[in-house]
User: Fold this.
Amino acid sequence: MDSVKLKISILDWLYIILIGACFGFLISLFLYFINDEVQTLSTILFSTISAITISFFAFILITISNDYILPRVNEKFWYLISFIFSFFSGFLGFSFSYYIFSLSEFNIITFIKPFWFDISMTIGFLTFLIGVILHQFISMKYKNESINSEVLETKIKALEGELNPHFLFNALNSISELIYLDQKKAEKATLDLSRFLRNAINKDSLISLENELKMVKTYLEIENIRFENNINLSINIEEEAKIIQVPKFSIQLLVENAIKHGYKTEQLDIEIEAKDNLITVTNNGVLPSKVVFGTGLTNLQKRLNLLNVGKLEYKVEEKKVSFLINIKR
Assistant:
């Protein structure tokens, strides 16, 4: 149905009505100057209001057509019905305006009274032609938006595919060692890894912060096999923040980055906070002399930008380094 449905936004309709009013005003000026009998302000008022009424009828009829008629009829009749509705938007819009103004004694009504029906039919055919042009314009606009959306999604998926695979290799090596040392721990680690990978293959690029933190916890349970439980995680988030949408693997990547660059053969404390649309991942590990965005951080920065979610920032304090995701409201 998308091939025929006119997906016109409210803003588009406001523009259409405004253009219709301007068009009606120009027509009124034409009538105003070609005939002395209709050189009154009522002519301008009638033409302008008629154009607005036609645009309003177009809005009503196209909405009815899209939402209630087209979904219930055979596809081969869609174009015919759409263009019939375009015709009636002009015919009924002008007829309605004529009827309302006929209750007055405006000169323009007296002037067009003998052939008002012919004018209504003519305007109906004009709106039919405009409907054809509008349909092509909106269809091209929608197709262009669809192509841009597909390109954007492809870029995001490509970035997700660049996520560091070393974690998987390290996890499998750790599990293989545990098999000989502690079979129960090896079994739990295998289940944790399975759960993590199950969430990883989720096709959604954006997930709730709550679900992302579940993946982070699972990730750290697996990593702590290698680091002998020397990595401590504390989470402090507001209840309202749990539903914040974040890129998949965003917090996990920041935690992974903290371990990779902050761990110094002793306990590493990582703290995650979420408050007022600001997510902060802080660690007390090795302080960098200069923060450089490598593959992982650059990847995350690009995904935040492409998904129009927020931006990645950082700050280095006396004894800790923090990465912040500032979520757009």
